[in-house]
Amino acid sequence: MPAYNAAKTLERTVADIPPGSVDEVILVDDCSRDNTVEIAERLGLTVIRHEKNLGYGGNQKTCYRRALDNGADYIVMIHPDYQYDSRVIPAAIDIIRLGICDFIMGSRIRTRSEALAGGMPPWKYIANRCLTLTENVALGQNLGDFHSGFRAYRREVLETIPYQQNSNDFVFDSEFLAQAVHFGFKLGDIPVPVRYFDEASSINFRRSVTYGLSTLGVLGKFWGRRLGIWKSPLFNPKSADALPKN
Description:
Elements: E1 2-3, H1 10-15, E2 26-29, H2 36-42, E3 46-49, H3 55-69, E4 74-78, H4 89-97, E5 103-107, H5 112-117, H6 122-139, E6 150-154, H7 155-160, H8 172-182, E7 187-191, H9 205-226
Parallel strand pairs: 1-2, 2-3, 5-7
Antiparallel strand pairs: 4-6, 5-6
Helix pairs in contact: 6-9, 8-9
């Protein structure tokens, strides 16, 4: 759980995780200004505190590094803002365990009416649909929601993808998806009910525009690499000495 000011929603997110479905919950706090850390410690989570704010992507890097160091075979990333339904964690892991997919996304957009009824702002819905369509075409995928804060991975995905090269900002997610496609992993998704409410985290319009343009830049790097005209380090294999030792 990459956390920033999640005190109002963390406990509900953790409470919905089906008993026995996870071995450890790791929360990385990115210098929250509320009592996120105190609540996480009370809930018995493994808590890591950043000494300075590293951003959303930087937070995920710490999450994944710790999960690999602790020997996880399957890793789930879920925002602790209660926007995503943590009850679907076992379903996502079962699909990966069966070998159907290596990487599962939670799709908030099963239908337009359901997404809007769940509180997704209309402008955000339209932007999501346009950007997801573009990414599906550019990356040869058929995912319902490229911008989800619910993701599950087989260990090998995180051992292969050089995510430490990625941005520390929100475009980390788009870079990671392009990298997963580049390295040949099988991607899929499952429906996750959308919950938009005051306490749920969400980036504003200005940052959303920046994120969208940055995502288009990632697609350019992906095709630049594929065509042999732009060798972005995002798509270089992770060096062997960077892998965790079990």
